[in-house]
Amino acid sequence: MSSHVYQPTEPFLDDWHVIRYDLPNKNGLALVVYINPERHQCVISIRGTDLTSSFLNNPITDLRLLFTNQAIDTFDSARLLLFHDEPLHIPRRDSIPYVISFTGHSLGAALAESFACVYNAYAVTFDSPGTKHILQNDPSCRINIELGYNPKEHIHTYLGAYANLVNVANPQSGQVMYLKRERNYSTTNWISL
Questions:
Q1: Residue 44: which domain range?
Q2: For the chain, how many structural domains are there in total?
Q3: Which of 3, 5, 86, 141 has its CA 20 to 30 A from that of 31?
Q4: Tell me: the pLDDT tens digits for 49-103?
């Protein structure tokens, strides 16, 4: 889903449906909301940096993530884009609540981790720039952590086989797993944990 958010009109997994797609705004921020009615799951995927859509805005935001411990303005923009100051409507067939989680890549990972902490949810992220200081400095997140929200249990981030400046710049939140590339003796490379 963190990859599909870049092409949300393409076919996707069986039983998962796109119920909302917000086109990239002026900052290149885009969100897709997926639901699986059978599993009662909702996943909100946040797009990361896209150098083609907003060359100056996203890289500047990425650089701000490198050099600041404060929550970024893009978080407020993302929250408004997602919730429009009202609850997210999830169509239901029954009264069983949905489990909501977040995912994203790069800048989208940082936003997903921030949302997860603020809304007491789970996040699975890829190549996160590290949000430990951001979560500690966000008032809502700090309160949730004091009340028992545990980023190590709720946030899982995967870092690529090769470190890059962005994903090693700040301490990571949650559980970190490093992907490594292994060579299969066929012509295909595959990734393992």
A1: 4-192
A2: 1
A3: 141
A4: 655 544 444 555 555 555 554 445 556 666 666 655 455 666 677 788 889 999 9
